[in-house]
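Entries read sequence, tokenised fold; example below:

***
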Amino acid sequence: MRPPAFQFYATDWLGSQRVTMLTLEEEGAYIRLIAYCWQHGDIPSDPKSAARLIGKGASTTLATTVLTMFQPATEIGRMIHDRLEAERQKQDAWRAKSSEGGRKSAESRFKGGSRV
């Protein structure tokens, strides 16, 4: 199961020169593709398919521009986002650490004779 949300840092977004250089339409399309990328792990690299994901009558020209903000995935024809991948790894590490802590806590309670 994919995590339903990721941290959105307003300071990073508003301070990004790459984002600032986008038109308002491009910025809206970009955040929409980021959301799809988070939910599904990647997005299509084909501008026609990306435009359909963006919706709202988006053109392939718009999609082509916004796709420059993504990187090729290992799967041909797909794109990923480096910042989302870093966030996904951070969340995976936190879940693993929390799970291990819970397991150790349960083991120590069980060894101590306490079965709450």
User: Anything to note?
Assistant: Residues 82-111 form the longest helix (30 residues). The CA atoms of residues 3 and 85 lie 12 Å apart.
